[in-house]
Design a protein that fits this description.
Layout lengths: L4 E9 L3 H11 L3 E3 L7 H19 L13 H32 L7 H9 L2 E8 L11 E9 L2 E9 L7 E3 L6 H23 L5 H22 L2 E3 L2 E9 L3 H11 L2 E5 L21 H7 L11 H16 L2 H17 L6 H19 L22 H26 L5 H24 L7 H15 L10 H5 L1 H14 L2 H20 L6 H42 L22
Antiparallel strand pairs: 1-8, 1-9, 2-8, 3-5, 3-6, 4-5, 7-8
């Protein structure tokens, strides 16, 4: 359920800004909406400080069991930044050294100083590079010595007295020999390894630095809140949103602090944040919302319940294997033991999805892709007919989309527009029978055509209020395309069958290819490893299919029919050390 919000305006004396913000932060219930751009010197300093400590935390490995360094968090950050700068300088020098080595290596290891000394005695040594296969001739009274040949060309030296030139690219010697470059490279790489060790030595200070980062984030939010307040002469004011149930807390604080307070209903144009509170059995779906970063807008509908129910069905049909479901249960239990302090709802979601997969796999006799004749005799013949399963996909799609329109009809029950959604429900079932006729070769019922015609009439007559026809006539012009899209939406649920069938086919193919190899010990071990990798790949593809298809059917097909655009902004109240998602 989307929690009802109230718009809050707090007025205070300008000199009491800090006292007011501290009191609001202690309440921790108002989501601030800046009245002006939160900019200024203090804000920039706070943001720079946050970036400074965040960078230190990024490179610090989390080893809370490691011994403390004995330094304060500030000293640790200072030491880390010294290492960061040194690391940066060494890496830049290493890049230069590696480039120089690549340039010098074809000419071998020589002392550049010896070339300069010889030049002082009138003997000139010049280094050249010529294309592969080039005809190289030494100038008169000169000697030519090939040093190396690579795919880039031939590298050679020419030695002679006096000035001479050659039709080739001359190489300018480095100030260091190849051996010196390699020695400097080794020293630099050793120091880099030492820096990594020094950074790791601060691993026990990770919690202290993390708290420092959180304090810096709090300071940024405070500075932005202060800079974002409005002001009029001696009065400063701010606006925000709080849950309706928290209004009494704001009113009590206002009476105590002497604030001016205005509580009102948010308008349709206000940037109201979304806070969702659901019973425990629905909360697991929040894991999907968190992972995908989606949230319904405040004025939209929370579809958590149908999302959870239908995603469980989609998950089961897309994976479709009871063996995989049992494996998921074991992996979830293992992960939960390893992460006892993590929130419970993601693990609960995995248990639900795994249980649904086991049930579907048992109903369809699918276990690790094994041939069905090797499994139990009891079966449901209807579910082992591909045509029937495809029809089931269409039924699920029609029910899913109809639920969206019937829900909208209920929300609009006091307006004529409810009848338009009844019309969409009729056309959805008409498209269900149309899909059955074209895809499955089913007979189109005689009463389905009148049902579709009645649905279209209801949509045309009640889709748009009469007063809005002039401005929204384009929606009626696009109605034929919308009806065609309704057909494609119903057909799109066929992906449940297609992906589930592909999953079984991949698992079964691996089984058939590798089972004959189990005759010998060595070949059996190789087959076992390959079989494990094959099923692991299939599970990974199933996971991708769930994101691409299972989540999509809820967030796109169902949501578009429901009118949910996922335009929500998360509710983040102004409070100390409170950057986490408070919908948890």
């Amino acid at each position: 359920m989307i929690v009802p919000m109230k718009k809050v305006t707090v007025l205070c004396l300008d000199h009491a800004r800090d006292e007011t913000l501290e009191a609001l932060r202690a309440l921790g219930t108002v989501h601030l909406s800046h009245l002006q751009l939160p900019e200024g010197e203090e804000v920039e300093k706070a943001r720079a400080r946050l970036a400074y400590v965040e960078r230190a935390l990024e490179i610090l490995p989390p080893h809370p069991q490691q011994a403390l360094s004995g330094k304060t968090a500030e000293q640790v950050v200072t030491a880390l930044w010294a290492l960061i700068h040194e690391q940066k300088d060494i890496r830049e020098n290493l890049a230069h050294l590696k480039h120089e080595r690549i340039r010098v290596e074809p000419y071998g290891s020589f002392d550049p100083e010896s070339i300069r000394k010889l030049a002082g005695k009138g003997i000139h040594v010049k280094l050249y590079q010529a294309p592969p296969g080039a005809d190289m001739q030494a100038p008169p009274d000169c000697a030519l010595q090939v040093l190396s040949s690579t795919k880039e060309g031939v590298h050679f030296a020419v030695i002679g007295r006096g000035d001479f030139s050659l039709n080739a690219v001359e190489f300018v010697p480095s100030s260091r020999s190849l051996s010196e470059i390699e020695a400097e490279t080794a020293v630099a790489e050793k120091r880099l390894a030492g820096i990594d060790e020094e950074i790791s030595a601060f691993g026990g200070d990770h919690p202290a630095v993390a708290r420092m980062v959180q304090d810096a984030r709090d300071h940024v939010r405070y500075a932005e809140a202060r800079a974002g307040m409005g002001a009029e002469k001696a009065i400063a004011y701010l606006q925000g949103y709080c849950p309706a149930s928290s209004v009494s807390m704001i009113e009590a604080a206002s009476a105590e602090k002497g604030w001016g307070l205005v509580i009102s209903e948010p308008s349709a144009d206000d940037p109201v944040p979304t806070k969702i509170e659901n019973p425990g059995w629905i909360k697991p779906i929040k894991a999907i919302f968190d992972m995908t970063g989606i949230l319904p807008g405040y004025h939209e509908v929370d579809i958590s319940v149908p999302f959870l129910i239908f995603l469980s069905i989609f998950f089961a049909m897309l994976v479709g294997d009871a063996g995989y479901g049992l494996l998921f249960v074991w992996l979830t239990r293992f992960a939960r033991k390893k992460m006892p302090k993590a929130p419970a709802y993601p693990f609960t979601l995995l248990y639900i999805m795994s249980a649904a997969t086991i049930v579907w796999g048992l109903l369809t006799r699918t276990v690790f892709g094994m041939p069905k004749h090797m499994l139990w005799e009891a079966r449901i013949p209807w579910l082992e007919d591909d045509t029937n399963v495809m029809q089931l996909c269409f039924i699920i799609g029609a029910v899913h989309l109809s639920l969206a329109h019937l829900w909208n009809a209920w929300l609009l029950r006091r307006t004529p527009q409810a009848l338009a959604h009844i019309g969409w429900t009729c056309t959805t079932w008409g498209m269900f029978f149309t899909a059955g006729m074209f895809v499955l070769g089913k007979t189109f019922p005689s009463w389905a055509a009148p049902l579709m015609i009645a649905g279209v009439l209801l949509i045309v007559l009640f889709k748009t209020p009469v007063k809005q026809l002039k401005s929204e006539w384009f929606g009626h012009a696009m109605l034929p395309l919308d009806i065609i899209a309704n057909f494609t939406d119903v057909v799109s649920y066929l992906r449940l069958f297609a992906v589930g069938t592909a999953s079984f086919a991949v698992a079964n193919a691996f089984n058939q290819m590798l089972t004959p190899m189990f005759g010998g010990l060595l070949s059996g071990l190789v087959a076992a490893v390959l079989l494990f990798l094959g099923h692991a790949l299939n599970i990974a593809l199933c996971g991708l299919g769930i994101l691409v298809h299972g989540v999509r059917l809820n967030t796109l097909e169902f949501s578009s029919h429901m009118g949910v655009q996922w335009s929500g902004r998360p509710y983040r109240p102004f409070c100390k050390q409170c950057e986490k998602d408070l919908n948890k």
